[in-house]
TrEMBL record:
Residues 17-106 form the HTH hxlR-type domain. This is Transcriptional regulatory protein. It comes from the Bacteria. It holds the Pfam family HxlR. One of its GO terms (molecular function) is DNA binding.
Length: 106
């Protein structure tokens, strides 16, 4: 399992451009979906897996580990996963893209 380096390096690249590191992390399977499903409220592992169309538990846990290491997701006291303030800020940044996608789909 590959953790997102704090430097923002992209897997298989020598670049340290933060935008490329972020896009690499968000481009991994299920990463954006996890953030999207957590945008309104924390979810337990099981509820998150259900919300993610029964994603593989192994892959889901790998992504949660990466998103936690990146500072976007945290494990709450009650055992559920939720967004950190940085994760909420990222979701707010994605919302204009979501609105555009909805318009484009029509």
């Amino acid at each position: 399992m590959t953790k997102q380096p704090a430097s923002g390096k992209v897997r298989g690249s020598r670049t340290e451009r933060p935008i490329m590191g972020l896009l690499d992390l968000l481009g991994r399977r299920w990463s954006l979906r996890i953030l999207w499903e957590l945008r309104d409220a924390p979810l337990t592992s099981r509820a998150l897996r259900t919300a993610c169309d029964e994603a593989s538990p192994t892959v889901l846990q790998a992504r949660l580990t990466e998103l936690r290491a990146a500072g976007f997701v945290e494990l709450g006291d009650g055992g559920g996963y939720g967004l950190t303030p940085l994760g909420r800020e990222l979701c707010e940044m994605v919302m204009p893209l979501h609105r555009f996608a909805e318009k484009w789909r029509r």
